[in-house]
Design a protein that fits this description.
It is a single chain. The protein is α/β, with parallel strands linked by helices. The chain is built from eleven helices and nine strands. The strands form two sheets. The chain has a five-stranded parallel sheet with strand order 7-6-5-8-9, covered by helices on one side. Strands 2-1-3-4 form a four-stranded parallel sheet, sandwiched between helices. The structure holds N-carbamoyl-L-aspartate (NCD). N-carbamoyl-L-aspartate binds next to helix 2 and helix 6.
Length: 304
């Protein structure tokens, strides 16, 4: 039985297969409409979510399966002090696969170690968010036709942004990727990620100025400042509007640079950018559903 805790749990070849499957699902919806008849997905979300939880649920429903779960820690026995390990033992009796989001790093991994069903990490604290990475990679692969030869800029909260950590880890395995980390000093990419890049001789630079960097990028990955991970509100307020991508800044970008964002967007991308054809953050949402359908089929070992 396989779980998904981080993007590196799949090899590059396995990811290619997964994306091919997602492409096929997108093109032949009817073929997959009953692939999960009789199967149940549990969504155990101890943290807020709109896209991730609903796209998992939509994915399972679109495959003919059913869903159950909880959308906040308050509405589960976590509020009574139950451990994740005990909860997953229970969920294993009711469902065939589980997507779990938790504020604590490593909680889905603890769950996986006690689980009788595949567990998918749907975001664990400031650590990893592998299914957002699958979404991001499928978006890039579809819109650019490749996953190599890119200069990618990550902008915003690179310290707490789990989607950033997971996407960097995933892209490190492709050829000729150059990373530009754009953040204030306080929100730099964690040192363990920098060390991994250095160890593997992968080129990266860290800068503060978005406007100065934007012209060199093939891809720009904007992120929200992760308010819920800050120790004090003052720091959040000081940093929250550090970057705002505007139409004026987009004029300095290449005509084919894509702007990605895992969403939710708060203030970091001005709504005036939404109509720019290079802004693909709402397209990502659609790909997220297809790639989660492909993931559910893969982890349940269902072949259509
Ligand atoms: C992200 C997350 O939860 O980490 N959202 C998502 O799942 N698409 C990004 C964020 O909350 O900023």
């Amino acid at each position: 039985m396989r779980h998904l805790m981080k993007p590196l749990d799949f090899s590059v070849e396995e990811l290619e297969q997964l994306f091919d499957l997602a492409d096929d699902i997108q093109k032949n919806r009817a073929k997959y409409a009953h692939a999960c008849d009789g199967k149940i997905l549990a969504t155990c979300f101890y943290e807020p979510s709109t896209r991730t939880r609903l796209s998992f649920e939509s994915a399972m429903l679109s495959l003919g399966g059913q869903v159950l779960g909880f959308a906040s820690a308050d509405s589960s026995s976590a509020a009574k002090g139950e451990s994740v390990a005990d909860t997953i033992r229970t969920v294993s009796c009711f469902a065939d696969i589980c997507a779990m989001r938790h504020p604590k790093e490593g909680a889905p991994m603890v769950a996986a170690s006690k689980s009788r069903i595949p567990v998918i990490n749907a975001g664990d604290g400031g650590h990893e968010h592998p299914t957002q990475t699958l979404t991001d990679l499928l978006t890039i692969r579809t819109l650019k036709g490749r996953l190599n030869n890119f200069t990618i800029g990550f902008c915003g909260d690179l310290k707490f942004g789990r989607t950033v950590h997971s996407l960097v880890h995933a892209l490190m395995r492709y050829d000729n990727i150059r990373f530009v980390f754009i953040s204030p000093e306080e929100l730099r990419i964690p040192s363990y990620v920098r060390e991994e890049l250095k160890d593997q001789n992968i080129p990266f630079e860290e800068v503060i100025d978005l406007e100065a960097a934007i012209g060199d990028l093939d891809l720009l990955y904007m992120t929200r400042v992760q308010r819920e991970r800050f120790f004090n509100e003052e720091d959040y307020v000081r940093l929250k509007d550090f970057y705002i991508l505007t139409k004026a800044k987009m004029k300095k970008a290449r005509p084919d640079m894509l702007v990605l964002h895992p969403l939710p967007r708060v203030n970091e991308i001005s709504v005036e950018v939404d109509d720019d054809p290079r802004a693909v953050y709402f397209d990502q949402v659609q790909y997220g559903r297809y790639v989660r359908m492909a993931l559910i089929l893969t982890l349940l070992e269902i072949q259509v």
